[in-house]
Amino acid sequence: MSLWRYRDRLPVEPLVTLDEGDTPLLRAPALSERVDCDVWLKVEGANPTGSFKDRGMTVAVSAAVQEGARAVVCASTGNTAASAAAYAARAGLRGAVIVPEGKIATGKLAQALMHGARVVALRGNFDEALTLVRKLVERHPIALVNSVNEFRIEGQKTAAFEVCDALGEPPDVLCIPVGNAGNVTAWSRGFREYGAAPRLHGYQAAGAAPLVHGAPVERPETVASAIRIGNPARWEDAMDAVTSSRGEIRAVSDDEILDAYAFVGEREGLFCEPASAAAVAGLLKYGAQGRVVCVLTGHGLKDPTTAIGRASPVVPCEPELEAVEEAVLA
């Protein structure tokens, strides 16, 4: 089963699909106990390329094919690049991705390259990359598949449908990381179409928190590379979504993100990327009431470098029983 079971609520036919969507919604007992409410985790890292981006990309690339496009392009901090590259490959289209030089996690770069996309490392940040690709598509017949594309939002809204269907009712609160702000916009649209109105709690990294400060951040910095964005393209939409839900946009520090990242891995058995943990960090820091869903936007293998740097060291051992006993039982 895929998100296309909601095809009557989507604007195009599933011309390009990898059976995305229908991701797990798991109760989080350790987290529930810690924050004294009923917490569930929507595991979007279970999508085909390991992030929520696939929900929007299947619809956006299907629309591009329907419209006769022969190539797609995006600016990306990593996950959009991986997803766009995969769906372009599936569709038989040329794919090009513009990423900030030296600012993309290893796993995401590997995906984009292996799917055959042309990867361009821009000597600038994501916001500059997005500005340039928007100008590029004005001059050439290429489909832009960033979240400024309405088809992306249409696909991503299906996550809200899935949560409500799985729970049998809407949650009281949704906690979600916020970078370019397309995803919180999409969840809001999905809840509205479902007739639901949970509070939306969006969390940005403290070093990349323009919505919190009310002004663009010229040089955003955070360990959570997927939300390292200083001027979100969906700024107004996201603020409208959060305000109308009586929710909030707040910041969490990198230390708080990494603590939540470790907590989810060690206590809930789920490996998410650092940006995903921003939602959990926000819940741990600010709390919530009732039934809460935290969106884990991407798989931890997207960023193996951070994982290895954070983890305990590997224990060396000689090939002898006594040595193995000591290494295992110490």
Which tags fit this structure?
330 residues; alpha/beta; Rossmann fold; 2 domains; four-stranded parallel sheet
In round numbers, the mean pLDDT is 96
> Can you tell me the overall shape?
globular
State the secondary-structure class.
alpha/beta
What helical percentage do the residues reach? Answer: 40-55%
Q: CATH top level of the largest domain?
A: Alpha Beta
Q: Give the count of structural domains.
A: 2
Which runs of at least 5 residues are low in confidence (pLDDT < 50)? none
Helical segment count: 14
| Span of the ends, CA to CA | 46 Å
Largest sheet strand order: 1-2-10-7-8-9
Topology as a string of helices (H) and strands (E): EHEHEHEHEHEHHEHEHHEHHEHH
Q: The CATH topology of the largest domain is what?
A: Rossmann fold
Largest sheet: 6 strands, mixed
The tally of beta strands, per DSSP, is: 10
Under the CATH scheme, the architecture of the largest domain is: 3-Layer(aba) Sandwich
Beta-strand percentage range: 15-25%
What does this structure look like?
The protein has helices at 29-35, 53-66, 79-91, 106-114, 126-139, 150-156, 158-167, 182-194, 210-213, 235-244, 254-267, 274-286, 304-310, 321-329; strands at 25-27, 38-43, 71-75, 94-100, 118-122, 143-144, 173-177, 199-205, 248-252, 291-296. The chain is of the alpha/beta class. It folds into 2 domains: 3-48 and 151-310, 3-Layer(aba) Sandwich (Rossmann fold), CATH 3.40.50.1100; 53-149, 3-Layer(aba) Sandwich (Rossmann fold), CATH 3.40.50. The strands form 2 sheets. A 6-stranded mixed β-sheet has the order 1-2-10-7-8-9, with helices on both faces. A 4-stranded parallel β-sheet has the order 5-4-3-6. The relative contact order is 0.15.
